[in-house]
Amino acid sequence: MVYLGFGKEDYEAFKANDRAGSIHMLNLVKLRERAEYEDGTDTSGQEAYATYGRLSGPVFERVGGRIVWRGAMEQMVIGPKDLQWNLCFIAEYPQPGAFLEMLKDPEYRVAMVHRQAAVADSRLIRMDPIEGGTGFGGDDAKGD
Question: pTM for the complete prediction?
Fold first, then answer.
């Protein structure tokens, strides 16, 4: 199954989870070889996503967002071998409402056209950042 955006139910669940504090959004993105624009614009998925980044960047910064981690996928160790991500990064927002504010911004909506044209598949996972620990389960992992 391919995932390119979220539906109304997911959006409403996100809004309902309005806890205090920052959120991290894990982004895994597979780009199309050639972007698919409704108007037939011919460019690569990489170029279209770069346009999305250039146009959405000021909005992302304006709502207080920042990239806290970025990595290049080298190898699928556990998982489907045919699923490779071109872009892997974690974006931080100062609070959940900042992400929602970005989505509603008119400049961001213009940028989204380029993301939709560029992306073949994606995952967006909201996370509550916690301090690192010494073990895989974390220092405060419970054995319940």
Answer: 0.90
**What are the chain's domains?**
24-127 (3.30.70.100)
Contact residues for 62 (Cβ-Cβ < 8 A; gap 6+)? 105
Instruction: Provide the b/e sequence for 13-30 (b: ≥16 CB within 10 Å).
Output: ebeeeeeeebbbbebbbb
pLDDT tens profile 18-65: 999 999 999 999 999 999 999 999 999 999 999 999 999 999 999 999
Phi, psi of 43 (to 5 degrees): -155, 170
Name residues whose C-beta falls within 8 Å of residue 19's C-beta, 6 or more positions apart in sequence.
96, 128
And the tokens for 89? Answer: 């990064």
